Amino acid sequence: MLTLYHTPISPNSRRVWITLLEKELEFELVEVKLDGEQFKPEFLAINPFHHVPTLVDDDFNVVESLAILDYLEAKYPTPAMLPKDAKDLAIVRMVQLVSINELLPAATTFLPQMLGLPGGDSEKMEKAKQKIATVLKFFENLLDDRPYFVSYNLTLAEVVAGTIVPILPSIGISLSEYPKINAWCGRLIARPSWQTTQPSPQSMAAFKSMVAARMGQNVPQN
């Protein structure tokens, strides 16, 4: 039995959750609250790095989201979410790694604004906007006439980039200059797997309170 330890607000967790749904696998979903639960001995026994997501398949523990995605693809290859063609495979890997190494850190710069909290370094934010624009242009050029990166079907490029790019408008980054990316986002967020894994208002509120507490700020109560 597959068990996914996750946090709803985490794009790293969400990409694994989406993959499990898209592959129509049976699994148990266990939420790990990042207010200290990740440091409890029972979770550290599963993942000594106290990170989410973590996948447990019977007695085998898999940590790091990209490793989990590869594990699921290798063990459950239907539907296929990785291409065989060398060029297409390279594109999927580029999209994954650029999303994680370039796009997500830049987007995280705007986290206080996304949560409606004060703060933020204007110089860092401007550099982050430039980095995001570079990534979006890169992605726009990679997309061809197919509805998804390198395929007519969903790939692992989608489940990684597609848990980050759609949130960009919420931090003031318009996708209007990137028509292929904009249409691609629309296709993704219409899928049941994206809708099912969308963080709830309750999850957002809890995350906002946690971040505010770490920043030493009070969160207004609605």
TrEMBL record:
Residues 1-80 form the GST N-terminal domain. Pfam families: GST_C, GST_N_3. GO terms for biological process: glutathione metabolic process. PROSITE patterns: GST_CTER, GST_NTER. It comes from the Bacteria. InterPro entries: Glutathione-S-Trfase_C-like, Glutathione-S-Trfase_C_sf, Glutathione_S-Trfase, Glutathione_S-Trfase_N, GST_C, Thioredoxin-like_sf. Residues 85-207 form the GST C-terminal domain. One of its GO terms (molecular function) is glutathione transferase activity. Homodimer. This is Glutathione S-transferase family protein. It comes from Halotia branconii CENA392.
